Amino acid sequence: MRREEIVAIARETLGTPYQHQQRINGLALDCAGVPVFVAQRLGISIEDVVNYGRLPVPAEMRAALDKNLVRVAKAAMQPGDVAWIRFEHAPQHFAIVGDYPYGGFSLIHAYNGSGLNCVVEHRLDASWMARIVGVWRFPEAGP
Fold first, then answer.
1. How many helices and strands (H and E) does the chain possess?
2. 124 near 107, Cβ under 8 Å?
3. Radius of gyration (Cα) for the chain, nearest Å?
4. Tens of pLDDT along the chain (143 residues)?
5. Helix orientation angle between 33-42 and 3-11, rounded to the nearest 10 degrees
């Protein structure tokens, strides 16, 4: 699998409305639903953790990431990787890293904030970069 495939499939979710715990592209997804959709489309077997609260338990999220994906250094982040993001104190959000059309990286994620309520893609700027607490990679994506 190529990283471009991961990003292209993640972009298929753009505009899908946000809804907590949902996994149906075009109808409703949450932030975990985007990487789950990508994995399913690529035939990658990952455990889809469901029945979590609106404020998930970081230790459980970390365990799911470690079980299904391969951790990489933030400095080694590439398009197609999965970023684990904090908004205030504890990490609670996932995004697929994309290749921003004007250079650098973007984030593709189901976002419920700033007047948005859908899957979006935007440039990964310094404020978003500072929120990333870890990066994981689909094992099949290679180094």
1. 4, 8
2. yes
3. 14
4. 699 999 999 999 999 999 999 999 999 999 999 999 999 999 998 888 888 888 778 898 999 999 999 999 999 999 999 999 998 888 999 999 999 989 999 999 999 877 789 999 999 999 999 999 999 999 877 76
5. 120
Burial per residue of 80-91, b for 16 or more beta-carbon CB atoms within 10 angstroms, e otherwise: bbbbbbeeeeeb
CATH code, domain carrying 134:
3.90.1720.10
Local structure of 56: helix, strand or coil: coil
C-beta separation of 121 from 106 below 8 A: yes
Q: Which of 7, 29, 27 is nearest to 138 (CA)?
A: 7
Total-model pTM: 0.94
Q: Which domain holds residue 38?
A: 3-141
Q: How many domains does the chain have?
A: 1
Nearest to 96 by CA among 112, 86, 84: 84
